[in-house]
Amino acid sequence: MVKVSICIPAFNNEPSVRRLLDSIEKQEFKDYEVIITDDSDGDGIRKLAEEKDYVNYYKNPQRLGAAANWNAAISRAGGEYIKIMHHDDWLTEEDSLKEFVKLLDKHPEACLGFSGSRQEEKGKSYDRCIAKEDAAFIAKDYRNLYLGNTIGAPSAVIVRRDAGEKVMYDEKLTWLVDMEYYMNLLKHTPHFVYTEKPLVSIGVGENQLTEACRDNMDLNVFEYGYIYRKYHLEGEGEYRAKLLTILADAGKSGEEATAYGFTKREYQREMGRKLMSKVKWKLAHFPGGRQKG
């Protein structure tokens, strides 16, 4: 059995996949397999994979979509650890994979480990990592991830295969699929380990799925509402307040709010607060009103 299965669910973007594979080839740690499941339109990824004798390439017979393609890659993994890598991302340094492996080797109680990341956007880069207080917040209760995905992108995570076999990405989700996956993992095994080092670099672009979903308010309502019910968060104050705010931001009707267990009165109150904050913002930025002429 290999130590790490590096799973790459590809969708077009051959130059980024090549960059990722180049970063894998430079790794000091060599006990890995590479699996590509290809959801692409053409055969560019296949041709690239044929150049690499270490790549196990699988063309999906029909397009699966994001989460299902992630699951397809993971389902073919034979390693002790599963390291998913999205095609926009790459391993930052030559010792990155070794550092990921050390996280789980040194902490057998943990079902997943994660690192900081180097965000690469429009020619600029910056490092980010989880704050210690946020890590403690998740350790206290994994459901606190509902208030914000402070773990980060899937490429920054490594998972034990035995934990990953119990949990797959929820294919009903698009925008919050990684957040829910972490919640589900920690629900079964509530232990994780992390490093602040930016072991992966995250490519950020306008055409990414994340960017397309971020401002889709209907999608936000559906996915937050779906997870809210799946994890039975109805009686919890902070989680309840989070969903109430999302419903109000999307301008949903009182009937839609009551379907999630909110009273019309509390939803009207939230809508009123939302309106008041907009008025205050306008007064602060345009105190004299619109000028004529």
Question: What's the structural blueprint in terms of helices and strands?
Answer:
Layout: E1 4-10, H1 14-25, E2 32-38, H2 44-50, E3 55-59, H3 66-75, E4 81-84, E5 90-91, H4 96-106, E6 112-121, E7 124-128, H5 132-140, E8 157-160, H6 161-164, H7 177-188, E9 192-204, H8 209-214, H9 217-230, H10 237-249, H11 254-258, H12 264-285
Overall radius of gyration = 21 Å
Q: What is the CATH homology-level superfamily of the largest domain?
A: Spore Coat Polysaccharide Biosynthesis Protein SpsA, Chain A
Which sheet architecture does the biggest sheet show? 9 strands, mixed
Instruction: Briefly note the CATH topology name of the largest domain.
Output: Spore Coat Polysaccharide Biosynthesis Protein SpsA, Chain A
- Portion in helices: 40-55%
Let me know the number of strands: 9
Distance between the termini: 75 Å
The total of helices stands at 12
The tally of structural domains comes to: 2
* The CATH class of the largest domain: Alpha Beta
Second rung of CATH, namely the architecture of the largest domain:
Alpha-Beta Complex
Mean pLDDT: 90
Overall SS class: alpha/beta
Order of helices and strands: EHEHEHEEHEEHEHHEHHHHH
Tell me what portion of residues adopts beta-strand conformation: 15-25%
* Uncertain parts: 289-293
Bulk shape: globular
